[in-house]
Amino acid sequence: MRRYPEVELDVSLIDRVVDIVDEGVDLAIRISRAGSMGNAARKLAASRNVLCASPTYLAGLRLPERPADLGEHRCIGYTYAASGDEWQFLDADEKPHGVRVNCHMHTNNGDTARSAALAGLGVIWQPTFIVGDDLRAGRLVALMPAFHMADIDVLAMYPSRRHLSSRVRVMIDYLVEVLGGVAPWDRS
After folding, report:
1. Separation of alpha carbons 73 and 7, rounded Å
2. Helix crossing, 128-137 with 110-118: angle to 10°?
3. Where in the chain is the domain with CATH 3.40.190.10?
4. 163-176: per-residue pLDDT in tens?
5. CATH for 28-46+152-186, among 3.30.70.100, 3.90.550.10, 3.40.190.10, 1.20.1250.20?
6. Which tens digits make up the pLDDT trace of 23-69?
């Protein structure tokens, strides 16, 4: 806003997919691997998904080393996850491994899942833009280093490339500049 004071922002934080045309949204930031059919999109950044838990939760428990080990743990699920309570992992050869987990809590908000994990309530997977600082500070511990989850894209979504206003174009260019390369949440 300092760089472009003429741009007005109306920020809504919603963890569900909105229909940007029906809801009159000029620009949406969508966290997705798929984007959205019918809308234009520009990739702003990628974010890693990380399986983690707090040291308090992990105290006295056997650390999971492979997906099947998660059956011994309490998990906190993300309501909007496409795979539900079947969590998907990739090994070093990119071979998929799915496991149905015991979610004793579900939430439709990543920050709520993070808070529950920090409180020692179980294992979560969340993107590094939510849990990165906690991992670096040791408040959360990354689990199963031999496996990883698929990255997700951070996308700028807008109704049409043809009728893109100069204000929206400037905002997208700014976001690419700020988030491009290594995203801020994954920088040391």
Report:
1. 47
2. 20
3. 28-46+152-186, 49-142
4. 788 888 888 999 99
5. 3.40.190.10
6. 888 888 888 766 566 678 888 988 899 999 999 999 999 999 999 99
